[in-house]
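Colleagues,

For the teaching module next term, I've prepared a clean inverse folding example: a structure given as tokens, and then the sequence designed for it. I'd like students to try predicting residues themselves before seeing the answer, so please don't circulate the second half yet.
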């Protein structure tokens, strides 16, 4: 769970990207790695099978620093999408502070999205994590044919309190916005429980602006399977 070091003005968060196979979880991390300032990005570690699918997990450590001297360390991880690796999903999810659910916008992948979301709920419970854990849902692959319409995404958003972000991760579009939304949700929870704004002397808007101040624009992820 979240680690605090208030004297050093540091917080460490674990963020997990969850979703069905080939929805774009790894591509999200690859796109973020291309945008984050090099001084703040760690090495992107990916463990893959021979067919280029994630076998265990991907890990991207990112360090955000603000002008006021505040430091946020974020460990971004993905889970394997294949059902046979459910035990690994559960292990990776342990101690998560926030979750980004990466859904495939293609209508043909509706059932896979539903199964993965139900599996996420089961593994949150198995790990003793709260059902209201900070979360956002990204609908990826918005550039493909036969996808859920914008109206359908808006209707989905109205039915849930979870923020929804459209994305084309292979081009870096919507990837940063997804992470920003997730960190806003995480900040709100930390502020409610630990009065983070009061302790650090910063509000959420300033916090988010400072974190992403020096990030670059979206870039294509070459060789990615979106």
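(Answer key — instructors only)
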């Amino acid at each position: 769970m979240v680690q605090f070091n208030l004297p050093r003005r540091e917080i460490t968060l674990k963020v997990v990207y969850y979703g069905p196979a080939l929805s774009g979880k790894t591509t999200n991390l690859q796109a973020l790695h291309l945008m984050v300032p090099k001084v703040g990005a760690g090495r992107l570690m990916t463990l893959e099978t021979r067919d280029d699918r994630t076998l265990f997990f991907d890990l991207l450590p990112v360090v955000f620093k603000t002008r006021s001297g505040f430091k946020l360390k974020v460990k971004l991880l993905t889970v394997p999408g294949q059902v046979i690796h459910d035990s690994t999903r559960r292990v990776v999810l342990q101690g998560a502070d926030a979750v980004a659910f990466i859904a495939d916008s293609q209508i043909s992948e509706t059932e896979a999205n539903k199964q993965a979301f139900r599996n996420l709920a089961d593994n949150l419970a198995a790990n003793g994590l709260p059902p209201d854990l900070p979360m956002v849902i990204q609908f990826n692959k918005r550039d493909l044919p036969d996808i859920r319409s914008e109206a359908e995404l808006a209707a989905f958003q109205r039915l849930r309190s979870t923020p929804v972000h459209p994305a084309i991760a292979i081009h870096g579009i919507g990837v940063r916005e997804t992470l920003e939304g997730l960190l806003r949700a995480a900040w709100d929870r930390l502020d409610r429980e630990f009065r983070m704004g009061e302790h650090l002397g910063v509000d959420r808007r300033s916090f988010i602006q400072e974190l992403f101040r020096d990030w670059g624009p979206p870039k294509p992820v070459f060789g990615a399977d979106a």
